[in-house]
């Protein structure tokens, strides 16, 4: 059976609603909110003239922190909630793989960089170092090989670097509203 074509307004409205209602929540262990963090990541992507799909991925990469709204997890869940997968799964069917798979891989990219760049680990925030342990620690050699075989692994690494840098308390950024036209363009490309 064919999947119904998603209404682009529905998913953008859903995401806008999440940003509005939940975005002001603290970003666990960091000195800024989740919305500020994701907007800063998108701004960093734009500053490097990244393609729209990668800007969208940066903007939405942590949307999975709110995935419990969608009934994917039980209250018994603790520790790592796999926000990478839940965020990507929320977006699949609305956004192309260039967005969804970069969202899905942004934690793997941290594990990859920890295994392949000796200085990278020390650049991580304390919260990100802690979550690394819950996420499996640095990749093994076999995991690195598998990661290299993924078509989007380099984009995922780019996103990861913006993610790590997008933690500046008090930095002013563009609003979520201002990214709506970009999201609309990316959705239409499916
Ligand atoms: Fe993040």
Topology:
Layout: H1 8-22, H2 34-47, H3 52-60, H4 83-91, H5 97-104, H6 106-116, H7 126-134, H8 141-148, H9 153-165, H10 176-188
Helix pairs in contact: 1-10, 2-3, 2-9, 3-5, 3-10, 4-5, 5-9, 6-8, 6-9
The site of fe (ii) ion has 4 residues, from loops.
Structure description:
The protein has 190 residues and is an all-alpha fold. 57% of the residues lie in helices and 0% in strands. α6 (106-116) packs across α8. The protein is globular, with a radius of gyration of 16 Å. The structure holds fe (ii) ion. The site of fe (ii) ion has 4 residues, from loops. Fe (ii) ion binds at residues 37, 61-62, 163.
Give a short overview.
With about 190 residues, the protein is mostly helical. The chain contains ten helices and no strands. The structure holds fe (ii) ion.
Q: How much strand content do the residues show?
A: under 5%
Helix run count: 10
Shape: globular
Q: What characterizes the major β-sheet?
A: none
Radius of gyration: 16 Å
What is the H/E string? HHHHHHHHHH
How many extended strands? 0
Distance between the termini: 18 Å
Q: Name the helicity range.
A: 55-70%
Which small molecules are bound? fe (ii) ion
**Which regions contain 5 or more consecutive residues with pLDDT less than 50?**
71-77
Mean pLDDT metric:
87
Give the helix/strand class: mainly alpha
Structure characteristics:
binds fe (ii) ion, 10 helices, globular, mainly alpha, 190 residues
